[in-house]
Structure formats: C-alpha cells, structure tokens
C-alpha cells in the first residue's frame, strides 16, 4: 500500500485522491491474486491430486474425490489471502477479518461434512456395513459438527468466547431435548439394534403395525427404510423396532430352507381299509412297493402270531388308504429335488374337524427365493390333489352352487321329471 501511494504521489495528486486510488488498486490487486491462487489451486493442484488418486491401487481415495472433499478445500485459498490482507485496510480490518474467518469456518464445516459422507461411503463398501451400519452415528456426528460450527460462527460474528454461548445453551437443554427427541431416541435405538444384531441392511422384515413387509434398504439415525414387495417404501422410526415387535426372516434366508406348512383336507367318508385290489395297485407305485410289501409282512406276522380271524377287517391290523397315502406323500417329498432333505420333513394328521381330516405337510424348500418357493409349493400340492383319487380318497370341499345344481338335477331325474 505504501509503495502504491509513493508511486501515485509523483503525479501531483491530492492526498484524498491518492488514498482513494491506492485502495482501489489494492482491492484489484488482491482480487487478481485471489483469482490467480484459486486458478492454481483448482487447475493445477487439484488436477494433480485427481491424477494421483486415479492412478493408484487404492479405492477409498476415489470415494473421497467423488464426495468433492478436495474441491471444497480449495475454497479456503482465496479466503486465507483476504484474511491476511485485511491489515492493509486499517479502518475495515476487523470487519474483513471477521467476514473471511466466518467464510473459512463455513468451508471447514462443509469439508468435514464431505469427509463424513466419504467415510460412510467407504464403510458401506465393506460387507460388515450390512451387519453393523454406522449411518446413524454419522448423522449424530453431523449434528454435533453443525451445532459446534454454528456456535463458532456466531461467537466469531459477535466477538464472544464460544464457551459463553455454550453455557447459555445449558439453560435451553430442556428445549433442545424436546427438539432432538427423535434423534436421541433414534441414537439409542441404533446402538441397541447394532449391538444386538437385530436388523441389518438387506434383511427381510415384517412389521404389520406399519404395513411393512420387505427388505431393509437403509438404516439412518431416525428411520429404517423398508422397500416392500409391492415396491412401495415404508419408513419405520428406529425406536419402533425396539419398542414394538417385528419379524426378521434373516434366519430363514441364512438356513437355506423355507418352510412349507400347509394341509390337504380329506373327506372322512372316503377313508377305508385297503382291499386286495387296492394293495395290488399300490405295489405298482414306485415309492410304495417296498413299504407295502414290508408292512403286509409285518401285519400278517402279527395277525398270525395272535391267531386273529382276518375274515373281518375289524380284527387285527390292516392297511388303510389314508395311511398308505400319508406314506406316499412322505416318500414323494423325500425324493423331491426341491425339498431340503437335511431339515424337518413331516407328514402328519391333525385333529379332524368340520372340514374333514387335515393332513399337514411340514417341510422346507431348498431355495428361499419367493418365486421359486411358491412354485415348488404349488407343484407339490398339484400332485397331491391329483393322486388322492388313486388311493380312494376325496379332498374335502364345502358344497358349491354347482354341487347343489347337480344334486337337484339328479333328484329330478330319479323322480322322472
């Protein structure tokens, strides 16, 4: 500034004019230096950093670059120049320094915010992120960053120590607790969900209270985002997963088997002892040949040993069509390529009721994919319904309008109408 004034003084200008022109020239000079420094920072230094990042074997630095951490950092260069040039303009030094420092604090907050985003993205690239998500903690760190940054900015603008503002916030703690209630509850819930491994990104959860039935796609500080199977999105408060019950299907997915639990209802009036003709037909069925032969030998030996009169089927032991049918279904499932043979496989009778005799199939498919599972289940029951008449059995069904019409027609025909 003194050099500029000395140069202008040689032109015979007044002192006021020299002061005005020297200030203008100095402003232009500082602006040119800032533009030049910004150009060097972005076009030379930043491009060099980008080149280095793209040509090394690490991937995490590419994520930092994608989050524009270095781009935001380059904004500090002009502000630093302006801050240290403020002493040139003595009447406005304090104001310029305060404005430049405020800008640098805001840029620093933006840089740290971008770093937190980059850290979250780097962590998500590892499989452990699905088991131990940290997005909630990142959001807490951002809240602290913005609160501290805001306090520092305000204290810089009013020229007070940040501790004075912090002490004043103590009196507002009740208000702050009310404002950040959901965030505090979400933080506590996030810690419990993570430490107890209750839910992970990618888990299939079911929570009827919130109409949620689908895959978890994101876990944040306040919410758990679920993409339902109808492609809608349900947002569940994080603390609701702690306070309310929900079903997590992860165990099924990890086990490699999905449960089939369904009944076929047998009309009890079709249940009977097996006749000789039926037994001969059963022997021709691949899955029953050995079973029927073995069971007949056991039954005959039992009846012979006890000298039971077998002329009446009520005496002694006999094969029943429903018993043979139950064994057939069991052997059919044992030989089915889509049934998990290492898991529970039961074909059992339940208590008979108004709908006949329930014959329950309890097994596991070896593919947990929903579409495949439904297809396997449907194929199994298609087959069971189709083969039931072979065993002299009828599936129970409440009378329909067609049944009543058929009954009416047969009645009219028998009466000669």
From TrEMBL:
Domain of life: Bacteria
Gene3D superfamilies, A to Z: 2.30.30.60
Main location as per UniProt: membrane
One Pfam family recorded for the sequence: MS_channel_3rd
Domain (Mechanosensitive ion channel MscS): residue spans on this chain: 182-250
Domain named Mechanosensitive ion channel MscS C-terminal: residues: 327-387
Stretches that traverse the bilayer: 20-41, 76-94, 100-119, 140-158, 164-180
Subcellular location: Endomembrane system
Membrane topology category: Multi-pass membrane protein
InterPro entries: LSM_dom_sf (IPR010920), MS_channel_C (IPR049278), MscS_beta-dom_sf (IPR023408), MscS_channel_2nd (IPR006685), YbdG (IPR030192)
Record protein name field: Membrane protein
Keywords, comma-separated and alphabetical: Membrane, Transmembrane, Transmembrane helix
The UniProt record lists the keyword Membrane: yes
Similarity comment: family membership: Belongs to the MscS (TC 1.A.23) family.
């Amino acid at each position: 500034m003194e050099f500029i004034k000395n140069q202008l003084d040689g032109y015979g200008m007044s002192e006021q004019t020299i002061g005005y022109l020297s200030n203008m020239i100095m402003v232009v000079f500082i602006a040119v230096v800032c533009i030049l420094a910004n150009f060097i920072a972005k076009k030379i230094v930043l491009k060099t950093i980008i080149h280095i990042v793209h040509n090394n074997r690490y991937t995490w630095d590419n994520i930092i670059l994608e989050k524009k951490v270095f781009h935001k950092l380059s904004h500090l260069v002009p502000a630093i120049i302006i801050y240290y040039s403020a002493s040139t303009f003595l009447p406005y030094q304090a104001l310029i320094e305060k404005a430049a420092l405020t800008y640098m604090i805001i840029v620093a907050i933006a840089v740290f915010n971008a770093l937190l985003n980059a850290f979250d993205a780097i962590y998500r690239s590892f499989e452990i992120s699905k088991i131990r998500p940290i997005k909630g903690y990142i959001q807490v760190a951002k809240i602290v960053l913005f609160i501290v940054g805001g306090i520092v900015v305000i204290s810089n603008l009013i020229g007070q120590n940040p501790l004075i503002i912090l002490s004043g916030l103590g009196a507002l703690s009740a208000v702050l607790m009310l404002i950040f209630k959901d965030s505090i509850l979400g933080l506590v819930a996030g810690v419990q969900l993570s430490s107890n491994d209750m839910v992970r990104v990618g888990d299939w959860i079911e929570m009827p209270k919130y109409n949620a039935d689908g895959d978890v796609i994101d876990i944040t500080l306040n919410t758990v985002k679920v993409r339902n199977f109808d492609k809608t999105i349900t947002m569940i408060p994080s603390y609701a997963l702690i306070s309310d019950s929900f079903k997590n299907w992860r165990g099924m997915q990890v086990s490699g088997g999905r449960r089939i639990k369904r009944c076929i209802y047998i009309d009890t009036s079709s249940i009977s002892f097996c006749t000789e003709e039926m037994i001969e037909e059963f022997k021709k069925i691949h899955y029953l040949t050995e079973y029927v032969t073995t069971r007949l030998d056991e039954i005959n030996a039992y009846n012979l040993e006890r000298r039971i009169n077998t002329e009446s089927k009520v005496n002694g032991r006999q094969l029943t069509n429903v018993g043979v049918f139950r064994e057939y279904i069991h052997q059919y499932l044992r030989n089915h390529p889509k049934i998990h043979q290492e898991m529970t496989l039961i074909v059992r009778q339940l208590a008979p009721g108004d709908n006949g005799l329930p014959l329950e199939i309890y097994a596991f498919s070896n593919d947990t994919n929903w579409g495949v599972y439904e297809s396997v289940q449907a194929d199994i029951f298609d087959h069971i319904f189709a083969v039931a008449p072979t065993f002299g059995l009828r599936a129970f069904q409440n009378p329909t309008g067609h049944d009543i019409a058929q009954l009416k027609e047969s009645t009219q025909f028998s009466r000669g109408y």
